[in-house]
């Protein structure tokens, strides 16, 4: 019989009640769309108050899955609600968890890995919808090990054949910087430390772009780089009041955790800024250091594209000039150590210093490799061969018979003549 409401697909009001396996359903008679699927009622009181119980909340679904999978599905929904994700994200993450759980390796895994699987399904869903979320955030919520999480994440992507796009760095910067508690005065944040959100975000994005172009982000976790860039952006907007503030205190004021490599990323960013400052005429007369260069970050970012090209061009030309000088010195019978330094002085007698190119940190400071020398072989051929190994050297039946006769003769000689 017709009921109130409209069909979500065609907008028709011709909705009728239908029974499917004793479950009341509301179906559109025009297009056949099932408006309410698997709606149950538990008691007469629920029916009187029109409290509907969906099929997923009934015992019908729970009878088809194990307790471990039920617990994982609840954890997926709980994590999505904690992160305040849209309902469509929650449904997709649940489907991924169900598909992954069908694999025998996942079903028989330890409870710790199944807990990590919950976060992996949520992370995959967020990445596919361009939702800025990092592995570190989920690991902090689940108290999970980052190495185990990353390994499980790659395993799930491969098992399910998922297409996961890379994380958008711009969206991550906007989301992460919005969590800083520096945009309004509070008892814990003095007025001189309060900054406009849009100004700080704009300068942070420019610094992160600079770090990306100079390979400071490649192959690294993005949060330490973003933390260092945010700190420099915040300092450069009002350097007179903020140069004395350290990175650790800044994170404490902003109520965010200080990532361990953030201090190293900060020093690398400052080194890039100093190299760019050498290309500006009005900054060449100043003896800038890693502290004073913060005051001129605005000028450096305004001309960052030109300054980067000049730094690369001059560094490459200097490197080529040194190579040519070394080749000329070697052609005249001089060794590389006799060629001049960076000033192209041939009589200096020192090894030339490499120019400060804007190269990846792994090339500027390569890790030291321990070269282990192979052990010297002392095999002479006179070593004794055990009886268990000698069989490996026998090839023909004649050799086997000769060996048996020799072994019998040796045993007879060792036993000696029989006593009378």
TrEMBL record:
<comment type="subunit">
    <text>Component of TFIIIB complexes. The TFIIIB complex has two activities, alpha and beta. The TFIIIB-alpha activity complex is composed of TBP, BDP1, and a complex containing both BRF2 and at least four stably associated proteins; this complex inhibits the transcription by pol III via its phosphorylation by CK2; YY1 facilitates the TFIIIB-alpha complex formation. Interacts with TBP; this interaction promotes recruitment of BRF2 to TATA box-containing promoters.</text>
</comment>
<keyword id="KW-0863">Zinc-finger</keyword>
<keyword id="KW-0804">Transcription</keyword>
<keyword id="KW-0479">Metal-binding</keyword>
<protein>
    <recommendedName>
        <fullName>Transcription factor IIIB 50 kDa subunit</fullName>
    </recommendedName>
</protein>
<keyword id="KW-0805">Transcription regulation</keyword>
<dbReference type="InterPro" id="IPR000812">
    <property type="entry name" value="TFIIB"/>
</dbReference>
<feature type="domain" description="TFIIB-type">
    <location>
        <begin position="3"/>
        <end position="36"/>
    </location>
</feature>
<dbReference type="GO" id="GO:0017025">
    <property type="term" value="F:TBP-class protein binding"/>
</dbReference>
<dbReference type="GO" id="GO:0070897">
    <property type="term" value="P:transcription preinitiation complex assembly"/>
</dbReference>
<keyword id="KW-0010">Activator</keyword>
<feature type="region of interest" description="Disordered">
    <location>
        <begin position="323"/>
        <end position="388"/>
    </location>
</feature>
<keyword id="KW-0862">Zinc</keyword>
<dbReference type="Pfam" id="PF21886">
    <property type="entry name" value="BRF2-like_C_cyclin_rpt"/>
</dbReference>
<keyword id="KW-0677">Repeat</keyword>
<dbReference type="InterPro" id="IPR054078">
    <property type="entry name" value="BRF2-like_C"/>
</dbReference>
<dbReference type="GO" id="GO:0008270">
    <property type="term" value="F:zinc ion binding"/>
</dbReference>
<dbReference type="GO" id="GO:0005634">
    <property type="term" value="C:nucleus"/>
</dbReference>
<feature type="compositionally biased region" description="Polar residues">
    <location>
        <begin position="374"/>
        <end position="383"/>
    </location>
</feature>
<keyword id="KW-0539">Nucleus</keyword>
<comment type="similarity">
    <text>Belongs to the TFIIB family.</text>
</comment>
<dbReference type="InterPro" id="IPR013137">
    <property type="entry name" value="Znf_TFIIB"/>
</dbReference>
<comment type="function">
    <text>General activator of RNA polymerase III transcription. Factor exclusively required for RNA polymerase III transcription of genes with promoter elements upstream of the initiation sites. Contributes to the regulation of gene expression; functions as activator in the absence of oxidative stress. Down-regulates expression of target genes in response to oxidative stress. Overexpression protects cells against apoptosis in response to oxidative stress.</text>
</comment>
<dbReference type="InterPro" id="IPR036915">
    <property type="entry name" value="Cyclin-like_sf"/>
</dbReference>
<dbReference type="Pfam" id="PF08271">
    <property type="entry name" value="Zn_Ribbon_TF"/>
</dbReference>
<dbReference type="GO" id="GO:0097550">
    <property type="term" value="C:transcription preinitiation complex"/>
</dbReference>
């Amino acid at each position: 019989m017709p009921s109130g409401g409209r069909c979500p697909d065609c907008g028709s009001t011709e909705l009728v009640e239908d029974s499917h396996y004793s479950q009341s359903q509301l179906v559109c008679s025009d297009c056949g769309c099932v408006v309410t699927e698997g709606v149950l009622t538990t008691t007469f009181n629920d029916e009187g108050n029109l409290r509907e119980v969906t099929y997923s909340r009934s015992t019908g679904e729970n009878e088809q899955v194990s307790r471990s999978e039920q617990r994982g599905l609840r954890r997926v929904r709980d994590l999505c609600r904690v992160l305040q994700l849209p309902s469509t994200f929650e449904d997709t993450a649940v489907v991924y968890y169900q598909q992954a759980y069908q694999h025998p390796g996942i079903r028989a895994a330890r409870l710790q890995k199944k807990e990590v699987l919950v976060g992996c399904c949520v992370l995959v869903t967020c990445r596919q919808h361009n939702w800025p979320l990092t592995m570190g955030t989920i690991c902090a919520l689940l108290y999970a090990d980052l190495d185990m999480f990353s390994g499980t994440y790659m395993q799930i992507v491969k098992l399910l054949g998922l297409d996961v796009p890379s994380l958008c760095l711009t969206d991550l910067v906007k989301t992460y910087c919005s969590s800083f508690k520096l945009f309004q005065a509070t008892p814990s944040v003095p007025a001189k430390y309060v900054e406009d959100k849009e100004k700080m975000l704009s300068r942070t994005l420019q610094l992160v772009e600079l770090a990306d172009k100079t390979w400071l982000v490649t192959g690294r976790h993005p949060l330490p780089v973003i933390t260092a860039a945010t700190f420099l952006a915040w300092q450069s907007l009002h350097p007179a009041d903020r140069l004395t503030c350290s990175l650790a205190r800044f994170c404490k004021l902003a109520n965010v955790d200080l990532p361990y490599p953030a201090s190293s990323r900060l020093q690398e960013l400052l080194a890039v800024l100093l190299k760019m400052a050498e290309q500006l005429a009005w900054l060449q007369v100043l003896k800038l250091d890693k502290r004073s260069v913060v005051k001129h970050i605005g000028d450096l970012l305004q001309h960052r594209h030109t300054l980067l090209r000049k730094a690369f061009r001059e560094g490459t030309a200097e490197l080529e000039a040194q190579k040519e000088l070394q080749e000329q010195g070697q052609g005249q019978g001089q060794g590389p150590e006799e060629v001049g330094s960076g000033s192209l002085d041939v009589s200096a007698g020192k090894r030339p210093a490499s120019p400060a190119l804007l190269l990846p940190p792994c090339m500027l400071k390569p890790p030291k490799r321990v070269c282990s020398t192979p052990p010297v072989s002392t095999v002479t051929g006179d070593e004794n061969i055990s009886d268990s190994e000698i069989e490996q050297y026998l090839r023909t039946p004649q050799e086997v018979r000769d060996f048996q006769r020799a072994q019998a003769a040796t045993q007879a000689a060792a036993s000696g003549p029989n006593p009378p």
